[in-house]
Every structure is written in structure tokens, then in C-alpha cells.
Write a structure and sequence with these properties.
single chain, 258 residues, alpha+beta
Length: 258
């Protein structure tokens, strides 16, 4: 296990989204729109808002980059818009911008999973991922990144090319590190951004410098994952992210993961 004990705490909790995605292999018969309609009857109490849209991917062709549709997405949102369930042809995901505890998150994951299985013929799942996205935008935190995080997270910021290069004058930086731990993969991406720079279409750009840390732990099991195994695997993945990168703490000692 990496030793990432922080020497300093953050000014405020940095989490802007927590997401758990569960995938399955392509099925002989799966009517996405019909499954979404059937699911809506079961989850409407918690997720009253529903919309759908095309899912696109960017392909590089001889004529340049082009977008092409790769499927349909159905999105169900809570009344306060801070919780959302997304359903596609081969995955379902739960996300929130108001993460409190892992226990609450897993409890809320149960409803859409049961609704999905009641509305479809999915025999088992093949992949589970748990993702924390953090964004620091406090100037004091950004100016002290070397005190907050170890080199594995800081990437190029941890090894300046000269004494004159510092966090204060680096315009933009991105780093990605992948670890294989206990049959799971842990991917850590860190990005230092200038104001108004978009790092992910799902997160609006902000008008100040920011430092993004994206922690993605996932596992794949081709022999299949049953619905009863999901809570334990999700907890393992959550613990994997928090145990290896638990330096994300606020000044009042609040653990931003647990």
C-alpha cells in the first residue's frame, strides 16, 4: 500500500462527483427503450425526471475528427437533481454531486439495479467501476500541492525542470498512473487547469485555476458477477480508492471518501 499520509489538509472538501458504473456483455435480446420504460415505473418515486439522448464517440478519419452515434442513453434524475441513474445498452450507472457516505451510496444503488433486473433478462454482470472526481479551486490549496500530495499524484509538478518552474507558473499539466491491486485496477488522473479550460464535457469550466484528481477503481470478471455480489465489490473498490489516496481531507478533519 502506498503511504500517502498528508502533511497538510485541504481548505474544503473537493469531491464534485461520485459514480459507480456496472456493465454486462452484449445480450441476444435487450430492448433498451422498453427496459427504460419498465424501470421508470419502479424508480419514479426517487427519480421523477427522465430524458434520453444519443450517445456519441469521436472517431479520427482521413477527413479529420467526426462524431458518430453509438447508442442511446436514458437518464433518470432525483427531484433535487443531485442524484442520477443512467441506462445504456450495456451499462447502468449511479452518480451524485452530493456524496455523504459510501453506505448511503450503496443503499441507493440497490434500487436501480433491482429495477433493471426486474425489467430485463441480464443473467450476470461483467464489470464494476467506482469513480471519485475531485476538484481543488482554492488558491491556497493549489499553491501547496507539493505539501498535500505525493509525486505519484502530482506527476510533472513534482519534478520541475528548474528552480524557476513552480506550480504558480505552470499553465496546464496532466498525469495518469495505473496500478493493479488485488485483481482490481486503480487509475489516478491528475490535471492542473488554467481558468475556463474544459477537462471533461460533463463538468463546466470554471473561471479560476483548478487541480482535478480523478480516481477510478474497477474490476472485471468474465465468469460473471451476481446482483448479490455488487455491494461487497463496490465497497472493495471504494476502499481501494480511499485507502491509497486518503490524503484528500478538509481542515476540519472530514474524510471526503467514507
Amino acid at each position: 500500500m502506498l503511504d500517502l499520509q498528508p502533511t497538510k489538509r485541504l481548505e474544503k472538501a473537493p469531491l464534485i462527483r461520485v459514480l459507480c458504473q456496472i456493465r454486462w456483455a452484449g445480450l441476444t435480446k435487450f430492448d433498451l427503450n422498453q427496459v427504460a420504460d419498465n424501470m421508470s415505473d419502479s424508480i419514479a418515486g426517487e427519480y421523477p425526471f427522465h430524458n434520453s439522448r444519443d450517445q456519441f464517440e469521436v472517431a479520427i478519419t482521413p477527413n479529420g475528427a467526426v462524431q458518430r452515434p453509438v447508442g442511446r442513453l436514458h437518464r433518470f434524475e432525483s427531484a433535487d437533481r443531485v442524484w442520477a441513474v443512467t441506462l445504456a445498452e450495456q451499462f447502468i450507472a449511479l452518480e451524485t454531486s452530493d456524496y455523504k457516505t459510501h453506505t448511503e451510496f450503496i443503499e441507493r444503488l440497490t434500487l436501480p439495479i433491482h429495477a433493471l433486473l426486474d425489467a430485463s433478462n441480464i443473467p450476470s454482470f461483467s464489470w464494476i467501476g467506482y469513480r471519485y472526481t475531485n476538484r481543488l479551486d482554492d488558491n491556497n490549496d493549489i499553491s501547496n500541492l507539493n505539501k498535500l500530495f505525493v509525486p505519484e499524484i502530482l506527476g510533472g509538478l513534482a519534478t520541475p525542470v528548474s528552480a524557476q518552474v513552480s506550480t504558480g507558473n505552470v499553465k496546464r499539466m496532466a498525469c495518469e498512473t495505473s496500478y493493479f491491486i488485488d485483481e482490481c485496477e486503480l487509475v489516478v488522473r491528475s490535471v492542473l487547469l488554467e481558468p475556463e479550460y474544459l477537462f471533461d464535457p460533463e463538468f463546466p469550466a470554471i473561471n479560476k485555476r483548478s487541480f482535478v484528481i480523478d480516481i477510478d477503481s474497477h474490476t472485471e470478471r468474465m465468469r460473471g458477477i451476481s446482483r448479490n455480489e455488487i455491494p461487497a465489490i463496490a465497497e472493495k473498490l471504494s476502499n481501494l480508492g480511499s485507502a491509497h489516496f486518503y490524503g484528500l481531507l478538509t481542515k476540519d478533519g472530514q474524510d471526503t471518501f467514507q
